[in-house]
């Protein structure tokens, strides 16, 4: 396995592949002076890890010699190369021509695409995993690289194993970060046309039967204030969360909360129009002005009806004459009867009232169009909203997710040219420009009336300072922190929970949430998403049953292994089989949930399962060992 990157995701991904999947990993990173600077709180841990790796590498060199081109050790399961960019020479030196998979996780999309094109030319059978923020571009690049691999391998659909998977760390982490800030929802996983929600439920009362939903994913820690395994390890421990428990364990667990899986669909209002600066018609005029226009229209109708009664004219002609009188362009009715004269005077009076209303309508419309292209300010009476700090890659995705759920949001951003400012304007979300560490910025975001705070800037100390200040303003405020370092996150979590036991506190790391998905994709699995359980991770993957002796030929009940994996759904054709065997013969399918335990899994089936990281590694490891002799 080859991993190329310039930030914490590359290191965490390499550690995931080495520690969970036991793979040989070559890590390509920029020189020390050009790497992305880690947060202050994470450098001590990184230095100790680097020292440990150097010691391991020194021990290995005594028997095996130094790694070619390596400038730093990765223990006994790989090597580390330093290169400014992933050029063709660098990729060749990293062993791409002989590698099974390559992950390109640079923060720059162009760098990843350029390196992917080069790697595909060097090794058409290479499994590629790209980190791209631009989702639409990622779809085109994925199709292009897959087509190139197919043609280079002989043109047949099964001639090569070179596949391409495009992932985004922002998309992987955004649903979990957004859901943590909502009432009744803690974690979500999104697939094409499907939204799964993992709900934390309190222990049932005596005599009460808890609803398991689609299934019970986990049993929470016995002591929520000091969760075991907060460092993200898979070992549950005595009081830590128990992942994927069986029915007997769920019945025996008394006094422990559960995480249940539910299938939900979004039923809120649609997103605003994608054309920036064009508000909806109902937002052009204020409510008072709309009522004024409606009143004038009613007066015109009443005058037209009265004129029709008095003169006996046709309704259309009576309306026409009334409008002429309204705009004072009709001849005076001095030779008409008294009723006609009174109606003409009333029409002229209504016309005088119409002039200021029309002027107000024009001014309001112009003001609405001007404010639509500008940043909105938080409304005066706003409350119960989510305060989002940071509009970078992660913050922008979380903002979009919250608005899709129709959650009111107020953003705080120090950079007026940040990536997510255009999205905030398009979604018409209030934004407070300013440094969150400065006094008065959080107050302008109405933090004292907010429901929750999402601190998602790229600096740990900024997030921590904002949370501490927000808690001083409102002690029971729900807070979610984005923290890079796991040890620091655990310490912050425990301290905040001890200081504010009645408030919800969660610490999340984007790389911690994204690395399992990237690692699973490198191993050849279609990872649908990841759900954090305290500080552990459950993976949701689509797996072909063929080639897995733990699944093939067994019933759903027999295939379930507590603490490792569980079959959740079966993919079945929707509307018949495909018309062809090639890429154009892809079938449309749907997922069947609540499978009976007696259903026998066949080799042609494709299932969706929930698995721990080690459970998914075990499924893959047995398959690899089975195929290795051939």
Could you please describe the fold and organization of this structure?
This protein is α/β, with parallel strands linked by helices and 630 residues long. 39% of the residues lie in helices and 19% in strands. The chain contains 18 helices and 23 strands. The strands form four sheets. A seven-stranded mixed beta sheet has the order 3-4-2-1-5-6-7, sandwiched between helices. A six-stranded parallel beta sheet has the order 15-14-13-16-17-18, sandwiched between helices. Helix 1 (8-19) crosses helix 16 (510-522), helix 4 packs parallel to helix 5 and helix 6 (169-180) packs across helix 16. The radius of gyration is 31 Å and the shape is elongated. 38% of the residues are buried.
């Amino acid at each position: 396995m080859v991993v190329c990157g310039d930030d914490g995701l590359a290191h965490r991904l390499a550690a995931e592949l080495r520690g969970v999947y036991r793979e040989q990993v070559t890590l390509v990173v920029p020189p020390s002076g050009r790497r992305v600077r880690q947060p202050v709180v994470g450098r001590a841990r990184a230095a100790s890890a680097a020292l440990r790796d150097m010691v391991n590498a020194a021990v290995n060199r005594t028997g095996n010699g130094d790694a070619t081109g390596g400038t730093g050790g990765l223990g006994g399961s790989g090597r580390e190369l330093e290169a400014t960019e992933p050029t063709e020479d660098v990729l060749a030196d990293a062993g791409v021509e002989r590698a099974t998979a390559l992950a390109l996780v640079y923060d720059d999309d162009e760098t990843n695409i350029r390196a992917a094109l080069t790697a595909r030319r060097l090794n058409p059978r290479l499994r590629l995993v790209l980190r791209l923020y631009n989702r639409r571009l990622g779809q085109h690049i994925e199709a292009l690289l897959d087509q190139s691999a197919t043609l280079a391998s002989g043109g047949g659909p099964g001639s090569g194993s070179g596949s391409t998977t495009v992932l985004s760390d922002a998309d992987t982490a955004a649903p979990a970060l957004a859901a943590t800030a909502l009432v009744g929802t803690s974690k979500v996983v999104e697939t094409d046309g499907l939204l799964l929600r993992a709900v934390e439920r309190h222990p049932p009362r005596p005599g009460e039967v808890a609803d398991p939903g689609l299934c019970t994913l986990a049993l929470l820690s016995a002591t929520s204030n000091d969760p075991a395994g907060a460092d993200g390890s898979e070992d549950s421990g005595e009081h830590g969360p128990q992942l994927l428990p069986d029915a007997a364990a769920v019945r025996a667990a008394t006094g422990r909360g559960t995480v249940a899986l539910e299938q939900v669909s979004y039923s809120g209002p649609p997103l605003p129009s994608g054309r920036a600066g064009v508000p909806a018609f109902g937002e052009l005029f204020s409510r008072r002005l709309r009522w004024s226009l409606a009143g004038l229209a009613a007066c015109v109708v009443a005058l037209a009806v009265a004129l029709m009664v008095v003169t006996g004219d046709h309704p259309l002609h009576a309306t026409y004459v009334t409008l002429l009188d309204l705009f004072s362009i009709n001849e005076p009715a001095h030779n008409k009867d008294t009723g006609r004269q009174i109606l003409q005077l009333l029409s002229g009076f209504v016309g005088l009232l119409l002039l200021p209303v029309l002027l107000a309508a024009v001014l309001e419309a112009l003001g609405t169009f001007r404010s639509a292209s500008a940043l909105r300010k938080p409304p005066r009476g706003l409350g119960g909203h989510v305060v989002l700090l940071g509009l970078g890659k992660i913050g922008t995705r979380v903002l979009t997710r919250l608005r899709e759920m129709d959650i009111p949001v107020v953003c705080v951003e120090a950079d007026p040219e940040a990536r997510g400012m255009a999205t905030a304007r398009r979604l018409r979300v209030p934004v407070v420009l300013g440094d969150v560490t400065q006094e008065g910025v959080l107050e302008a975001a109405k933090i004292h009336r907010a429901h929750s705070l999402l601190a998602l800037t790229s600096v740990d100390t900024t997030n921590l300072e904002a949370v501490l200040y927000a808690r001083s303003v409102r002690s029971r405020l729900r807070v979610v922190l984005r923290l890079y370092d796991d040890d620091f996150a655990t310490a912050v979590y425990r301290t905040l929970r001890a200081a504010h036991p009645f408030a919800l506190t969660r610490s999340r790391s984007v790389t911690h949430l994204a690395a399992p998905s990237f690692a699973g994709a490198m191993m050849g699995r279609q990872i649908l998403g990841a759900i954090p359980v305290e500080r552990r991770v459950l993976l949701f993957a689509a797996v072909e049953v063929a080639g897995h002796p733990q699944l093939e030929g067994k019933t759903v009940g027999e295939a379930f292994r507590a603490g490792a994996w569980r079959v959740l759904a079966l993919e079945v054709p929707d509307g018949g089989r495909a018309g062809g065997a090639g890429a154009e013969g892809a079938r449309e399918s749907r997922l069947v949930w609540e499978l009976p335990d007696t259903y026998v899994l066949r080799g042609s089936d494709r299932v969706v399962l929930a698995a721990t990281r080690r459970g998914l590694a075990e499924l893959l490891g047995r398959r690899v060992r089975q195929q290795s002799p051939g």
